[in-house]
Q: What sequence folds into this?
């Protein structure tokens, strides 16, 4: 089976492709000729995932899945949350976003945080959602070169290395997106 993954983020495609069984082939937005920015104007992570999946269905006619992810920090009342990409401004700069988080948590003992991914799937005129959560802590400084986004400052519970230091296989095993994708795969089978 072929299904469109509504993202332009190559890192996400890499992560999700690594988890998919060989009978499910991911089709990219480039493959269907979608080059515009898909609107993400909802006030919730779930709402954004649904909005992106619905957009592809309505404008291109393909069944598809879309994910939206946010980093929720306890001490910041769940921020940056749905605004994770643009936390430090419209340029969506991962380094600037991490610097802002580290500055806001400066001197704070409670560094508990979680990543939350919601995947929305349009299939056979139905819209389903699948959620994955990974709990952890925000480090004092950036560590590691791998991953993307906030990975260098996120220490998953039970680990001494950040997501940016862990191999992709390990991130996928315990991570938010991996958990949501496994629920999605379970729905297909
Ligand atoms: P979106 O799902 O593309 O809207 O992601 C929102 C923001 O969260 C972006 O700044 C991403 O870099 C960041 N983000 C999404 N997924 C991850 C992840 O797995 N690790 C670290 N940051 C992420």
A:
């Amino acid at each position: 089976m072929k299904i469109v993954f509504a993202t332009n983020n190559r890192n996400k495609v890499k992560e999700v492709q690594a988890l998919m069984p060989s009978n499910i082939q991911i089709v990219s937005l480039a493959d269907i000729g979608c080059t515009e920015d898909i609107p993400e104007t909802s006030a919730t992570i779930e709402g954004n995932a649904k909005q992106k999946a619905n957009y592809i269905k309505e404008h291109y006619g393909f069944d598809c899945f879309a994910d939206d992810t946010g980093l929720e920090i306890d001490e910041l009342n769940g921020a940056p949350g749905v605004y994770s990409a643009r936390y430090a401004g419209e340029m969506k700069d991962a380094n600037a976003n991490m610097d802002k988080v580290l500055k806001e948590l400066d001197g704070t003992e409670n560094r508990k945080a979680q990543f939350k991914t919601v995947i929305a799937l349009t299939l056979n005129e139905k819209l389903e959602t699948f959620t994955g959560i990974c709990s952890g802590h925000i480090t004092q400084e950036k560590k590691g070169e791998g991953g993307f986004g906030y990975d260098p400052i996120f220490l998953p519970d039970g680990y001494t290395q950040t997501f940016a230091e862990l191999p992709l296989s390990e991130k996928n095993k315990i991570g938010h997106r991996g958990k949501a994708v496994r629920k999605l795969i379970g729905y297909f089978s």
